[in-house]
Design goal:
6-stranded mixed sheet, two-stranded antiparallel ribbon, single chain, 257 residues, 5 helices, Heat Shock Protein 90, disordered C terminus, alpha+beta
Length: 257
Amino acid sequence: MADVTNAYGILMMVIIAAVAYLLYRSKEKNRKESNEKNKRLEQLEKDKEWLMKEIHHRVKNNFHIVASLLEIQSSYLKNKEALSAIKDSQHRIHSMSIIHQKLYQSESLSTIHMPEYIYELVEYLKESYAIRENIRFDLHIEKIELNHASAITLGLILNEAITNAIKYAFANTAEGKISISLTHISETQILLSVSDNGRGLPADFNNQIGASMGMELLQGLTDDIGGTFNIQTHEGTHINIIFSDVAKKGEDVEFKS
């Protein structure tokens, strides 16, 4: 009887050991399969990221080619309005090119850090228009990140607003100031404000083709991001655009130049 009990005990131990071994093998197999799957997903994500960066890089290069072609074309033009139109187009192209450059260089492929972008865009326009000390820029930009589509539209809006201020606000003024702010006014709404202390819009503003086109473009771009557009010309020109977007709120960033 004791022999039977011992044999039974040994058999149970063998069975338990076998089951434990099979469970261990199964667990190890699942772990390896899971690790391999995770590695494949990581590689796919890396490949996707590389592809998106390459796309943004090529788009930026294509923008640069278009801008260069416009520069070549402008060298054959004598008409001032045509030259101005080409220069405006170059600025619009560059404002979009900066976005793709930053997406290519950034770890994030979905959002743009607005303080850095706006500062770079302002510096480009200052250099392009050869602005020195006569026009001062005050920037108050919250630490906001926007998706690239909204950032591109906002860049075009800023380009138009700043260009209009440079062209029309300080024509007969020795010096002036352009103020730009991008702030949250609620949890879901953002206010872009571009103001100058110049002479305001000229009386024949609506009859000036380039100027009126720029204003129509501002309104159209605001519509594209579902925003509201408001302009006032008391003691300078003040443009306010309110829009909604998924954004991250952080500390304020200020630049003075």
